[in-house]
Amino acid sequence: MKENNTVQEVPAENTESVSAAKTKNAEWLRVLKFVLFSASAGIIEMGAFALLNETLHLDYWLSYMIALVLSVLWNFTLNRKFTFKSAANVPIAMLKVAAYYLVFTPLSSWLEHIYTMSWGWNEYLATAANMILNLITEFLYQRFVVFGNSLDTQEK
Fold first, then answer.
1. Taking the model in full, what pTM does it have?
2. Which of 74, 87, 106, 146 has the fewest beta carbons closer than 10 A?
């Protein structure tokens, strides 16, 4: 009986598709991290607001603004280090985030008024809608504007 020693060629993996899949997975992981850190920032904001408003009895807007700043600082710090892994200039990146909130904060306040006063939405539904809008727009802004040119540049 004669042995068959032929080797069948196996096509090499398409390195472009493997690279694209890795990139896609990395982006989904980036989104997941951003969502989880944003949720933790929401908890920080609500806790700080409750403490300032209910315990220290500060005015609503002062309590809201302090709590918002604390949550933004928390979120920025974690996302810069772990989500976007950026070595970008921190003060410049923070100024870009502040610019986002200079637009988003009054816009979300106006939308909250529209949702509740014009459309008759429940206040919690209006707040949830603004939180979702904030999550999506802030991710895109940080991903492409704040850290777009410095993604994954942080030294390990």
1. 0.81
2. 106
